[in-house]
Design brief:
- The chain is α+β, with helices and mostly antiparallel strands.
- The protein folds into 3 domains: 2-60, no CATH class; 64-167, Band 7 domain (Tetrahydropterin Synthase, Chain A, 2-Layer Sandwich), CATH 3.30.479; 247-284, no CATH class.
- Helices cover 54% and strands 21% of the residues.
- The strands form 3 sheets. Strands 6, 7, 8 and 9 form a 4-stranded antiparallel sheet that branches.
């Protein structure tokens, strides 16, 4: 009898523990009986359910985010861009959410086509310059309102839809990169051509200035040489006019130096020629 009482007590405790559950302040619950929802509990605290027959589905009350896959959109000015967006939502009707979506992981599946359709519709009426200006805020609010009309059927309230990033499609990016590369190469060629042209101008100017400088220097040298020779001749003339015999002697010695220092020199001349007077002692 005592053992039976212990078993009954354990069973009762088990039933009580299986019947009681708690809800925190950030949670709300849908109670289902044999798979069919029977009631919704939003108040935090300790609550009761029928064990084995009823199950609990917890849903978050807090603001949650859902990321959307990138979408290629054609803008109003016929430009194509890749839009990476995200949404923030709150579950306002857990029963409707449970019946239409099932769980929080299914939100993306239900919201994704709705958000992308609204993005294509609204952004398709904007130009790229408008999208990059303050008009983007009103456009995103319009997208949020359109998505909210469909999201209310899922028991959620769309708080915000925002564009995380916009980019050009891969093919456009490649074309732009190639165009930028070709533009930079063209600019580089122009700079090189200008550099070569400037180099030629500088070189030709330097060569011209060098030639002028050399010519002027040679002219000055020739003038100095001529002036020196003229001065030397004046000195010679002044010196030789003072002593005529010395002048004749100097001239004859110069003639001897030019004649006798050359190799293989032969003279066919009379021994009594005046050219040999100095050698014979008659010219002094």
């Amino acid at each position: 009898m005592k053992k039976f009482s212990v078993v009954i007590s354990i069973f009762i405790l088990f039933m009580i523990s299986s019947s009681l559950f708690t809800i925190s302040q950030i949670e709300q619950v849908v109670i289902t009986r044999l798979g069919e929802p029977v009631r919704v509990i939003k108040n935090p605290g300790l609550h009761f359910k029928i064990p084995f027959l009823e199950s609990i589905a917890f849903f978050d009350k807090r603001l949650m985010s859902v990321g959307l896959s990138a979408l290629e959109v054609t803008l109003g000015d016929k430009r194509r861009i890749m839009v990476d967006a995200f949404g923030r939502y709150r579950i306002t009707d857990p029963l409707k959410f449970y019946q239409s979506v099932g769980n929080e992981s299914g939100v993306l599946t239900r919201l994704h086509p709705v958000v992308l359709g609204s993005l294509s519709s609204v952004l398709g009426s904007l130009s790229l310059s408008s999208l990059l200006s303050d008009n983007r805020i009103s456009a995103m609010n319009k997208i949020r309102d359109e998505v909210n009309k469909a999201a209310c059927e899922f028991g959620i309230d769309i708080i915000d839809i925002r564009i995380r990033k916009t980019d050009l499609p891969p093919q456009n990016s490649e074309a732009i990169c190639k165009r930028m590369i070709s533009e930079r190469e063209r600019e580089a060629k122009e700079l090189r051509a200008k550099g070569v042209e400037v180099s030629k101008v500088i070189k030709s100017t330097a060569d011209k200035e060098n030639s002028i400088a050399l010519a002027e220097a040679n002219t000055k040298v020739q003038i100095l040489i001529a002036e020196g020779e003229l001065e030397a001749n004046k000195i010679y003339i002044d010196a030789f006019t003072k002593d005529k015999k010395f002048f004749e002697l100097f001239q004859t010695l110069e003639a001897y130096k030019d004649a006798f220092t050359k190799n293989n020199t032969s003279f066919v001349i009379s021994p009594n020629n005046q050219f040999f007077d100095i050698m014979k002692g008659r010219g002094i």
